[in-house]
Amino acid sequence: MSSALENYVNQVRTLSAACSYRELADELGESLSLLVRNWSILDNVLETLDIQQHTLGVLYVLLAKLHSAATANPEPAQIIQLMRDFLQRSNVEQLRFAVCAFYETCHCFTEFIVQKQLSILGIKILSRAIDQIRQLDTQLTPLHADLCQLSLKAKNFSVVLPYLDADITDISTVAAECKNQQQQQSQNTMDANNDAKYFLLYYYYGGMIYTAIKNYDRALYFFEVCITTPAMAMSHIMLEAYKKFLMVSLIVEGKIAYIPKNTQVIGRFMKPQAIYYHDLVNVYANSSSEELRIIILKYSEAFTRDNNMGLAKKVATSLYKRNIQRLTKTFLTLSLSDVASRVQLASASDAERYILNMIKSGEIYATINQKDGMVLFKNDPEKYNSPDMFLNVQTNITQVLDLVKQINKMEEEILLNPMYVKKSLGSQDDDLTSQHPKPFSGDPTD
């Protein structure tokens, strides 16, 4: 082992033994380039350090190994096992002194296993990383986006769904962590940009996951958060989310869902870049399945390029269902052939398949007489007087009350925030100044 690396190991041992984690974290940040240059003997360094006692030292060695992965070409199994062992045995107290380095390590690890097409092996590792570093179950970290990306790549959503289902009440940002750790201002600027990136990616990937499992209401909410995030310029992530937002809006509501008027980025930048999708929305409003089929075929190349062709087919399916639902408001009985003709399906058997699926999912209430091929449409049988319905209402009321408490708590925190108070007082001073202008004396040309 070179003398420089020996000094690194001695420094880690000495400062860790003295519990000088703040000083150690500052020193190790400057040693990263040294570790990357000596990537070939980093395993020797790991052998001399204990993960539990020297968490910070091992963290930077892991980060250096991942930074040099393109050159060193390590065995994926070795990197995966190192990350797994590190997260199982690391000291969380030490990690909090190098949150930025920890986030970067996890980002690099995610990129590495995605490139190696081993995403499924990183899902539980990232899940453990999130559980270790977040301070609340409802806190969003930059690692959430990585977990969503791995889940999408692996098409495995069982681990990530509990994280997505949790309503976010707090956001852990790299920029804030780095500021707390007194890092350089230039680093803070870069990390602030990454904060926005991972925030948008979380809601974009989350919307895609909910779309994949056909939870379209939740998917619509995630895409809405992504596209309505305050911004001065358009992000490509926001544009792609906007395209999916339009399609999911049609599936859920049959029209474009409400968008707040203060989102100027949508009108100025996104709409001109999503012309094909707005054409789809306009044709959908005509309720003609044949016209919709033609427009999807016309723009199939663009939808395929955007990886939205499958979603476009779901939009077409939703129009068939919506047209069948309209029939239930007009007719009590109708033959399957008439249903197929009115909603522009190819045959009576297709109409029967759609109706049976809609009955099963609770979208309509009807029975089919197989003997004469007639459909009898019925009203909703729910009388809202059952114990199950009472329990459901009670649960919803409890959730609303909890939400009100959370909103009141957040409002109180904002009102007591020194930055908010300072800004509010400054605005009041400006208003007073404008109401009582100072008299001017002297030559106006001076």
Description:
The structure is a single chain. The protein has a three-stranded antiparallel beta sheet. Strands 1-2 form a two-stranded parallel sheet. The chain has 446 residues and is mainly α. A hairpin with a 4-residue loop joins strand 4 (366-369) and strand 5. It has helices at 3-17, 21-29, 32-37, 42-47, 55-67, 69-72, 76-89, 92-95, 99-115, 123-133, 143-154, 161-165, 174-180, 185-212, 216-227, 236-253, 264-273, 275-284, 289-298, 300-305, 309-328, 336-342, 348-360, 387-415, 418-435; strands at 139-140, 170-171, 333-335, 366-369, 374-377. It is built from 25 helices and five strands.
Strand fraction band?
under 5%
Task: Provide the helix percentage.
Answer: 55-70%
Cα end-to-end separation: 74 Å
Strand order, largest beta sheet:
3-5-4
Our Rg estimate from Cα atoms comes to 29 Å
Question: Mean pLDDT, rounded to whole units?
Answer: 89
**Structural class by helix and strand composition:** mainly alpha
Q: Count of DSSP helices? A: 25
Structure summarized in a few sentences:
This protein has 25 helices and 5 strands. The protein has helices at residues 3-17, 21-29, 32-37, 42-47, 55-67, 69-72, 76-89, 92-95, 99-115, 123-133, 143-154, 161-165, 174-180, 185-212, 216-227, 236-253, 264-273, 275-284, 289-298, 300-305, 309-328, 336-342, 348-360, 387-415, 418-435, and strands at residues 139-140, 170-171, 333-335, 366-369, 374-377.
Please describe the structure with a list of short key phrases separated by commas or semicolons:
elongated, 446 residues, 3% strand, single chain, mainly alpha, two-stranded parallel ribbon
